[in-house]
Specification:
single chain; mainly alpha
Amino acid sequence: MDPSTKVLDGGWGWAIVVASFMAQLLAYGSPQSVGVLYPEWLHAFQEGKGMTAWVGSLVAGVGLIASPVCSACVDNFGARPVTIFSGVMVAGGLMLSAFAPNVQFLIFSYGIVVGLGCGLVYAATLTITCQYFDKRRGLALGIVTTGTSVGAFIYATAQNELIVLYGLDGCLLIIGAIALNLMACAGFMRPLNMPGYYLKQKAALERNTEEQLFEKPTLDDLKITTGSTETTPEKTLTVKELLITIDSKDLAIQTEKKKGLATLAIMKVIKKKKQAYSKYMHSMHEILQDQAMVAFCIAVFLFSLGAFPPVLFIEDVAQSEGLIEEVSVIPLVSIGAIATCVGKLVLGILVDIRWINGIYLYAFTMFAGGVALLLIPVTKTYMGLQVLSAVLGFFSGNWSLTSYITTKIVGLDRLTQAHGILMFFGGFGIMLGPPVVGWFFDWTQSYDMAFYFSGSCVVLGSFILFLLTLPCWKRKHSENNRPDVHYTSNCDKVASVA
């Protein structure tokens, strides 16, 4: 089905938005509220906090690091099959986790299996939403991506209650069963364009059909009727041998031709792949030569390294400090999740204001989030942790600015590749953050040093991003000709992202 202007920005597109919103809610609900499960795993397996933290870090980081692979799956197979498969992965991983005998098994079942499933859902939902929307694409993507925050808010409370009623294993089984509804969400994802896999299959089928039309009849179908209705066995044998000899010669000639053509085709494919790979590496080299892009990658890595651990550890911090005996009715994770949802919307509105620079807005959110992290060790009341969770959650909504800022830095043509590089840095930081914080606790038996480290990383990232994008830095001559860069003087050479 060819894309039509009638189906864009409305109609069935809103059904796609609702289905994608629900898919992200179902997939990311449990991983985004993993902080509720973390104390239970510590109690059940009696492992160190650093080792147990790998479960939460992998489930969040694996999907981001594997985002290029997930995007390739969506391009080749389509959003609907990928979402169905991801539903099996997420539900299966959650149910397997209910039977985990140790943390190592949990790292595989919950961290890797569920993490990859979430990565596939994320790629599929964003791709199908972009296909159905053009002018209202920003609004549609904003609605879809808030599904993760809403899911975290709902699942944090739901998992807490399910643990009380049915225990940790029962909670994971029920959450896994609910995740099977991802298959129902996939049913609404009607493709506008045929995926690459089906196009290849169609081309192969047409090619096979053409070969069958021109194929020679088999020897059994050839009947010798020369002059009489019956032939002698000797004559029939001679004619068959003659036909076999002729066919063998033709087959040998055709085989040689096919070998030559196949070799030529393989050489052409190898040459094209080599050119594409060289072009890809050259483009990546140019992207990483951009000072603003390098600064942004470093900032995203440091922010992910420092700001993600509270999602996993904040409930354990409250219990370790004796501020609360057990997880409250509205957990701190839920407060942070709903604040993140609000932050995404507010920061998205602010970045559209003409006189606000997107890079500096992102640097400010990092600085404010880093200060909130530094204040966690000195907070001795549960109310104070609630406030800091809300503040940190709000400024963590800056994740929605990444694609916008990346587009302004490298342009729309290189957005996919540059954003993939950025997500790799972000996923790597998310994977390292919780284990590092857990190791700090195992070393010092206190979260104070861990959160001082996390806050320092985030504040350092904000200063790096701010300083490396100051107007007085000299830009390369190639950047001067880029349409997204506006220079007013020799000391005002910075990309305008407002």
